[in-house]
Amino acid sequence: MSRLPPLTSLRAFEAAARHLSFTRAAEELHVTQAAVSHQVKSLEDFLGQPLFMRLTRALELTPAGEGYAPVLKEAFESIERATRRLMEDQDKQGVLNISVSPTFLSRWLIPRLAHWQEVHPQIELRLVSTPKLADFVRDGVDMAIRHGRGVWPGLAAHRLFQAKSVPVASPKLLAGPIPLARPEDLARHTLLHDLVEPDNWRIWLAAAGVKDIDPERGMRFGTGAEALQAAIEGAGVALARRAIIRRDIEEGRLAIPFDAPTSKEFAFYVVYPEASWKRPKVKAFCDWALGQARADSEAEELAG
To answer: 0.70 exceeded by the pTM?
Structure first.
């Protein structure tokens, strides 16, 4: 059985040989200069011959060191390539953990999961439904879908679509005896709120220029998904992000009685840690979600 020198000694020598400096090798390996010097000396003792000529202010490779260094460099590069390929192959399948709000999950993502499974059967999604922002380290989340301005330190963000709020109600409610043709008509209808974004109606009414309606009155629900379900059942009028209720509109569960200007600074984004941008699973979901959002936008333009 062949004897091999310790890997730490080989790594220290290879780095020192590239830099011709124990100090710079130590910086690369995140150890002390003394540690690199000790590891190189241990390797020389193991081999029974010097690899460096230690001059007053410089290092020079001995003939033995000159022959040994490129072999080790190639070996470490080969190990790195093989490790990267193995990790990438593993990351093309398995589980992908995604944090998403309950409303986005139920109204936009779930109706599209059959297509995801069709094009990426080897990647199993685990969807964490929560209104809270994910902690990517503590929560074990790979990526998330967030609503905001698109700037989160340390995260890459890809814009899906504008998060424009519109009032929505059941078509049965709109066909009823109480008119709902303009914002002022909301005074005679029940406002449906959610506790995740409790100020939505106040913000929307202010943007629409409506001053005589109490934005606090009405029924409250734990999530936007619950408020939307109440709207579908005819309990009142909810606010929803237009892009995520397109299917509800097309299939007749909800209707937009009127439109009014709202802020355009917010949007939905696919986000993930910047260090994850090369991971195949992360890229696969990001590309798929962006493709679905583009298809929605094109369909809306054709319908409009």
So the answer is: no
